[in-house]
Structure formats: structure tokens, C-alpha cells
Amino acid sequence: MANETIDEQRERDYQFHLDVAEQIAPTWEKRRAQIEEYAAPVRLWMLRALDPHQGDTLLELAAGVGDTGFEAAAIIGGSGRLITSDFSPAMLDAARRRGGELGLENVDYRVINAQRIELDDDSVDGVLCRFGYMLMPNPAAAFAETRRLLRPGGRVALAVWGAMEHNPWIAIAGISLGQRGHIPPPPPPPAPGPFSMASAERVDGLLRDVGFTEVRTEDVHGTFRVTDADDYLGLIGDTAGPVGLALQALGEVDRAAVRGDVEDSLRRYAADGAYELPCLALCAVAS
């Protein structure tokens, strides 16, 4: 595709990630509680950094099933308003179901492309985006849109994944699948992907380039705990985007081979009869 323009490549990347999100949404929703347990340190960091108040209007981008924003919705109260959004209708449907379970009445649900947001200038007090900007084909445009929406004094709180070597929870499966030819090698940044924004310098630069003047980044550590290789493969297969879909598509022989690779890799993370896989998120807040 050497003759593609940048815009054509970005549109292809956008459609690819949308297709992946639509396919993975049902199993992601099934794993919601487990995901939120692992993501708790990041979710809590973002909420503290955003520091929402009663009556605020907040927007969550790439919300998935929405739990980060829903926790903020409880803080802003009935006089506040949360816009829960995702570019995937299937993910947004899952968020709507979760919001219904929680009995939330101060939430609007919208399908939104974060690179072209159909909201007015200066219309929100805060923006949340957990593990979303890194998958966007044009994060500079998404950050510019975020900045446009924020009222004076408003903040964005975000998280992206740190470097692959600090995130064996996904690297173990990805390396095995790549070495065995089931997935292509990951494209280098700035192409969208789980590790495309793993540099604090890049995140800081993108935010400042669109007009944010106060930027703070921080590493946030966590742990994925699994009981064995099958537990690990089930979790990754249900949640890890293209890697997960590749696992779901494996035949019996290929899956057994990948399982053997995983068993070998998990040994170094053995802890109390299970396995504890470290993860590292790069979190940022900007105003």
C-alpha cells in the first residue's frame, strides 16, 4: 500500500480498530469485573487527577464498558452530566447496559470519533480517556479536539500503556503469535497500537502542541494475576484486541503450540501457586 496517502492510511487504521472493537465487545463485557479489578490503580489515578466536582460536565472518550466515567458520574451528582462515548456501537451498548445496572440517570451515551467530536467549543469541564488515545490513527487531532472542548481550567486525564517490556501480560501472547506467524509484527510508532504512546516525552509533546500548558505524567504499576496458561489465554483471547482475535481463531494444534510458549514464559512470574504479570501504564493529566 505504498501509494496510500496519510489520510487513507488513517482511515484504514480507524476501520481496522473499529472492526476489532465490534468483534471483541461481547467478550470484553463478559470480563468487565475482572478488567476493572486489574485496572483499579489506573482508574483511581485518573479520577484523582481529574478531580471532578458536583455539577461538572464530563466526557469519557473510548469508554469501553464505561466504568471509569461511571465512577466520576457518582461524584458530579444529579446536577452534573457525563457523556459516555465510544467509536464502537457494540461497546457503547455494553456501557449502556452497565450504566443501567448502576441506576445512573446523569449519563448520555453517544457514538463519537474522538478525532472529530460533534460537541461545542468550551462545553465540558473534564475529559477522561483510558487506553484510547494510543489506538487512534491521528492522536494529535484527538488531543486538539479534546483541548477545544474544555472550558477554561478544564482538564484531561488519560492513560496509555507503557513500553512492551514492562507489560508481559500482553507481550507473552503477542510474541508467541508473532513468532509463529499468526499476527504481523507490530508497526513502529506513530502507527496506532497498544505501545504507540509508551513514551512520556511523546505524550507530553502531543499535549503541549495543541495548547495544554500544564502537563504531568506518572507511571502507574499494576498486576494481572492468572492461575495457569489456560486462564491467561482465556483472558487475553477475550480482551486483547487483535491479539485476542488471533487467539480465538487458532486451531487446536496451533493453540497447543502457543500454550506451550505461554507456559514457558509464565514460569518467571510464579507466585503463591499462580502467576503475577506486572503491567505498567503511563498516566497523564493536562490543563
Sheet of most strands: 8 strands, mixed
Query: Overall pLDDT, averaged?
Result: 96
Low-confidence parts lasting 5 or more residues at pLDDT below 50?
Answer: none
What is the tally of helical segments? Answer: 10
**What is the C-alpha radius of gyration, as a whole number of Å?**
19 Å
Instruction: Report the structural category.
Output: alpha/beta
Shape estimate? globular
Indicate the proportion of strand residues.
15-25%
Beta-strand segment tally:
8
Distance between the termini: 39 Å
Helix share, percent: 40-55%
Topology pattern, helix = H, strand = E: HHEHEHEEHEHHEHHHEE
Characterize the structure shown.
It is a single chain. This protein has helices spanning 6-30, 32-50, 67-76, 89-102, 139-149, 168-179, 200-209, 229-239, 241-248, 252-266, and strands at residues 57-61, 81-86, 107-111, 124-130, 150-161, 215-226, 270-271, 274-286. It is α/β, with parallel strands linked by helices and 287 residues long. Strands 1, 2, 3, 4, 5, 6, 7 and 8 form an eight-stranded mixed beta sheet that branches.
Which keywords apply here?
10 helices, alpha/beta, single chain
Short recap of the structure:
With 287 residues, this protein is an alpha/beta fold. The protein has 10 helices and 8 strands.
